[in-house]
Amino acid sequence: MAIMRRSLRLAGCVLAAALATASCSSGHHESTSASHPARSASPSPVLPSDSATSDPHGPSAHKAPTTSPDGITALVSGASVEGSAIYPIPGGIKAGKTLAIAINCQGPGRLTVQVKPTNASFPLLCEKGRVLPTMNEIHMSGNHPTSSLHFASEPGVTWSFAVGWDPDPPKQQ
């Protein structure tokens, strides 16, 4: 299980690094923005329907993802969320830190995550009968004492999340 979490985190880190590189080349240095859906490189082998919730240790849209094995203390989290929601980031955004956002989503549709007031955002494509875990890490270059996460969800998508500051983010190249 720890290897799978580390693999998912690595996949998210690679995606975040790619997004950061693309963002820097377009002149945006404060945030990353994806034009393509972020997806887990290796979603957990969860079977559709009722069996998707039968593994108490597997990812679930009905409980917040665990970030502590990666050394990340969750600042805010939510579970069994449907529809759109806004969650304040306690303490705001601090320049030079890396924000880690872990999300589990399930159901047919799209979930879009925005970090306000930055321009950082990424869409996730969720699937019916499968819980898709994703970890995105976004390096913050500016201070924002008041900030929040904005989630926009299509009908039929259930999701959970946990967000915190990564104490040991991957090196940017």
Describe the model:
The protein has one helix at residues 2-25, and strands spanning 73-82, 85-88, 98-106, 109-116, 120-126, 132-139, 148-153, 158-165. The chain has 173 residues and is mainly beta. It has one domain (2-165): Sandwich (Jelly Rolls). The longest helix is centred in the N-terminal third of the chain and has 24 residues, at 2-25. The model is unreliable at 1-53 (pLDDT under 50).
Mean pLDDT across all residues, rounded?
73
Shape by Cα distribution: globular
Helix content: 10-25%
Distance between the ends: 28 Å
The largest pleated sheet is described as: 4 strands, antiparallel
What is the strand content? 25-35%
Strand order of the largest sheet: 1-8-3-6
How is the CATH topology named?
Jelly Rolls
Brief summary:
This protein is mainly beta and 173 residues long. Helices cover 14% and strands 35% of the residues. It has one domain (2-165): Jelly Rolls, CATH 2.60.120.
List the helices and strands and how they pair.
Elements: H1 2-25, E1 73-82, E2 85-88, E3 98-106, E4 109-116, E5 120-126, E6 132-139, E7 148-153, E8 158-165
Antiparallel strand pairs: 1-8, 2-7, 3-6, 3-8, 4-5, 4-7
